[in-house]
Design goal:
The chain has 327 residues and is an alpha/beta fold. A hairpin with a 5-residue loop joins β3 and β4. The radius of gyration is 22 Å and the shape is globular.
């Protein structure tokens, strides 16, 4: 590693030997225009997206999301929460997050008529076939759950929680669902809610990390024949992490990654505009080249052959003490 750093990063020949090799992506990118913008709840707006000249958008199934490329260049993933049968439009909903640059851009700078680029749709939260369903949504977690509950019909029951009714979008669209705002009902007891699922039910949970963690702890004790399906909107906590170093080959900058910190978070201190989106290891937005060092791969995307030279910054880490990245 020391020899590599001396020759390829800090040595006089480094500019020739370590030329930038940026990752280029191509695929199902679509230009869309904001056709409608609606305030759905406190700090939640929905956007209806259409093709600029009209026409059908790609088909999608409940649980799907699209990557949205904002005018600033930021990329984020948002669940599709409209009607899969309506191919003329997509609907997404965005909650304003404190200190969230992308959500602030959506709320403060996107208006009807503005153009965007999207990629997708893709589905990492598939609605499986099951005899019955229990859907538990927390706050903005209603967005992927809403089309699922509609598709399940009489086979499903939906429980919708949130801080207060004023903060909970789409209350007028959820039919006979149980609504449990914290300010009226107290903090929800996840185990008590999951205990109402029928034996063998498919249980879908989308909400804040404590809700997901509680579901993972208790579901299979309560319902051994059931299945659990979860989606989170925030990065997972680092498990079994240890500190390591990263060298950015194009500048020679060396960073330290804390034991409870992601490589993405450390790199963003130096490169705040680096691309990322899901922070869960499946979208590939933060994929980078690895020039030296062994990687502890924790993603759900890269093939074995790709892992020899690439990593996803949001979840993967160094297997040793140091990595050299093509950044």
């Amino acid at each position: 590693m020391d020899a590599y750093l001396k020759v390829f990063v800090s040595g006089p020949a480094a500019p020739l030997l370590s030329r930038p090799n940026p990752l280029r992506r191509s695929g199902f990118d679509i230009d869309v225009v904001v056709g409608a913008r609606t305030r759905e709840a406190d700090d939640v707006v929905s956007l209806t997206l259409r093709r600029p000249g009209g026409g059908a958008l790609p088909a999608w199934r409940p649980g799907a999301h699209v990557d949205v490329f904002l005018p600033s260049g930021r990329q984020r993933q948002y669940s599709l929460c409209g009607d899969p049968a309506d191919r003329d439009r997509y609907r997404i909903a965005v909650r304003r997050i404190p200190d969230g640059s992308a959500s602030a851009e959506v709320h403060d700078e996107l208006w009807v008529g503005d153009r965007l680029r999207i990629r997708g749709p893709r589905n990492a939260f598939t609605l499986v076939d099951a005899p019955s369903y229990l859907f538990l949504a927390g706050g903005i977690g209603i967005t992927p759950i809403l089309p699922m509950a509609r598709a399940a019909g009489a086979r499903g029951q939906l429980i919708y929680t949130g801080r207060s009714r004023a903060t909970m979008p789409f209350l007028t669209e959820i039919g006979s669902a149980r609504v449990l705002p914290d300010d009226e009902c107290g903090v929800p007891d996840v185990a008590e809610i999951l205990a109402t699922a029928e034996p063998g039910a498919a249980v879908y949970v989308c909400g804040p990390p404590p809700m997901l963690a509680a579901a993972q702890r208790c579901l299979f004790e309560l319902n051994p024949t059931g299945s659990l399906h979860t989606e989170r909107f925030s990065a997972q906590p680092v498990v079994d992490g240890r500190e390591f170093g990263i060298t950015l080959a194009r500048t020679g900058t060396t960073l330290r990654v804390g034991a409870q910190e992601t490589a993405l978070a450390a790199v963003r201190r130096t490169l705040p505009d680096i691309a990322y989106s899901c922070q869960q290891g499946f979208c590939g937005s933060c994929e980078v080249g690895v020039l030296a060092g062994a990687v502890d791969h924790r993603d759900r995307l890269l093939t074995e052959s790709a892992r020899a030279q690439r990593m996803l910054l949001c979840v993967s880490r160094a297997a040793g003490d140091q990595l050299v990245l093509d950044l």
